[in-house]
Amino acid sequence: MHFTGDDLFTDITFLIREKDRIGLVGKNGAGKTTLLKLICGIEQPSKGEVVIPQGVTIGYLPQEKNVNSTKTVIDEALSAFDEYHQLERDSERLQQELADRTDYESAQYQKLIVKLTNITDRLTLLGGNSIEGEAERILVGLGFDHDDMLRPMREFSNGWQMRVELAKILLKKPNLLLLDEPTNHLDIESIQWLEGFLKSYYGAILMVSHDRAFLDNITIRTVEISNGKIYDYKVPYSDYVGLREERVDMQRSAYENQQREIKNIEAFIERFRYKATKAKQVQSRVKQLERMEEIEVDDIDKTAIHFKFPPAPHSGTVTLELENVSKAYGDNQILNNVNLLIPRGEKIAFVGRNGEGKSTLSKIIVGVLDHGGTVKLGHEVKIGYYAQNQQDMLDMNKTVFETLDDVAVGDMRLKVKALLGAFLFRGDDIDKKVKVLSGGEKARLSLAKMLLFPTNLLVLDEPTNHLDMLSKDILKNALIQYDGTLIIVSHDRDFLQGLTNKVYEFRKPNIKEYIGDIYDFLEQKNLSHLKELEVAKQKAKVVETAPQSQNKINYERKKQFDARFRKIDKEIQRLEDAIGKLEKELADLDNVMAHPDEHPEVNVDNDWYWAYGKKKEEMQALLDDWGEKQMEREELEKEFNS
Question: Distance (Å, rounded) from C-alpha 381 to C-alpha 400?
């Protein structure tokens, strides 16, 4: 793919199989989004081709999209079934044509039967008999309430409208899902629901995401774009990171060896260039240099923000106290009589579905939203606030430098350029207008602005939006070292893990406290859910039995399911190992078939092709078994959660 200057990528080749789960990675500007657009036909390659077998359907979710729908939520979602209704019309037309024909033995008649069979299979897959129920099920999974179904789309923010777009794509059930940052507009519960849906999805998935936990939980293959080439790893993201480091280390070693060899050859040429007795050897080495293909070391982009929060000024033992805090918008009661006491040094996560009051309470705490009840700040408490729409609060007509320089005071005015440099604004970057910055650059500038004033209470609302993985890691490390009080709203589980010691779950109009970090909270939530279900089941059974501890019931049930999960996971791992081994063998055979002249030792005859065909059949059988096991595991998960 060529735009200006060098190719974005050159001569890349790879295959997406029927049930692949692929994470597409690479540094900003590497071409991830462009590759997705090439696959779905929005862009066309400068050279080469994208081969899509007949009948394969593709669903593409971009990062952002202007929906502008005048329909209700449910009607907009049901527009995904336009294909279903067209297939119904095609089916009726073909049935009528077959009824009118009498050439039952002709090839044309058989083709019509095959076409009608394919349409019928597709209609069955789309599940037209229950399309409205399926649409509502997916919308609820993505965070909508049942009462939202008949509300107009225009009443919802762009983020919620993007959820409807995602629902439409999932309802279409394409053979290949292309997802570009699908978790951007989702909360933790919706992300977990989407993970469960995608794990059992019948087709292939290729996605771009900066959510490490999301990638690790879904993908089993990682494709990296680097220096115009691709590298294909048969592992999830976290495993890929280690393998990539090993690859670059090997490249660096090979590059250094080659440079030493080049230096020695050039020294020989220079020394004996004018000696007639060495002319032949000199020419040989000149040609050797000309033939030598220079080894390139892939650039791992390690440019990222670099900072730490200034020491928190001393404050009282109690940082914050809330008494009977309430907030309503008309009849919509968001918070009702919330009481909190937050001591100095506490690190708290606010979690819950979007619209449940997390951002509302954050705004009340920092004093930018009116409310009922009382908010008391402790002695000498100084607040630093990062709003969810922090980037929109910047003055778009100021330069990067002016944004900080206009509010900096005292010694900090002398450190503005150094601070901007730590957030990757260097050279001419500091003279750019804010309005031309990307979302990631605005997020970094907003974080830099927070460091101008020492604080002992940080309130951060979705601070990781638009940040890459490396920048998120550095921000997390800075927050771990921060010695003040922290309140953070986030849906990124990997970012929150180990960062907080308490979680408040928001279920309007109330909140509930959990001790521990995000994964402790999720585990307690799951156990609590199981406990409620078991209690309900026990009440439904009018059976005279000896009283038994509910915890013991949960423990025994979990132990039984764990054994079944281990068994099926072991079988899935065995199949994946066999698939990986066979993929390598087939790749070698494909190479022989593509370049027979380079393999004179191989006799490519009928027996060779027969053996090749048997391996392809074996591969398909393994993939089918793998798909069945994945579905079996999904059914087991549903049984466990029911």
Answer: 29
Question: If you ran DSSP here, which 8-state letter would residue 313 be given?
Answer: P
Is the distance from CB of 334 to CB of 472 less than 8 angstroms? no
- Per-residue HEC secondary structure of 475-494 comes to HHHHHHHCCCEEEEECCCHH
Q: 257: which residues sit within 8 A by CB, 6+ positions away?
A: none
Residue 15's identity, in one-letter code, is: L
Residues pairing with 320 in the sheet: 342, 377
The residue among 247, 222, 217 whose CA lies nearest residue 235 is 222
Strand, coil or helix: 409: coil
CA nearest to 188, candidates 412, 377, 402, 462: 462
DSSP state of 4: S
- Cα–Cα distance for residue pair 16/6, rounded to 1 Å: 26
pTM: 0.64
Q: How far is CA 99 from CA 108, 115, 291, 358, in A?
A: 14, 15, 68, 62
CB 183 within 8 A of CB 491: yes
Q: Which residue type is seen at 383?
A: I
Joined tokens for residue 529: 């859910």
Q: What angle separates helix 518-540 from helix 550-594, to the nearest 10 degrees? A: 120
Q: Report the residue count for the chain.
A: 642
Are 223 and 243 contacting, i.e. CB atoms less than 8 angstroms apart?
A: no
Residue that wins the pLDDT comparison between 341 and 541: 341
Per DSSP, what are the bridge partners of residue 205?
Answer: 21, 177
Question: CB count, 10 Å around CB of 593?
Answer: 14
Interatomic CA distance for residues 236 and 216, integer angstroms: 5
Q: Is 70 helix (H, G, I), strand (E, B) or coil?
A: coil
Pick from 265, 268, 55: nearest CA to 174 = 55
Strand partners, 487: 348, 459
Share of the chain above pLDDT 90, in %: 31
331 CB burial (10 A radius; 0-12, 13-18, 19+): exposed
Structure tokens belonging to residue 242: 């280690």
CA distance 637 to 642: 9
Question: Tens digits of per-residue pLDDT, 398-455?
Answer: 999 999 988 888 888 888 898 898 888 888 889 999 888 877 788 889 888 888 888 9
Query: If we measure between CA atoms, which residue out of 369, 39, 58 comes closest to residue 225?
Result: 39
Which residues are paired to 263 by β-bridges? none
Structural tokens at position 75: 């009607």
> 230 in helix, strand or coil?
strand
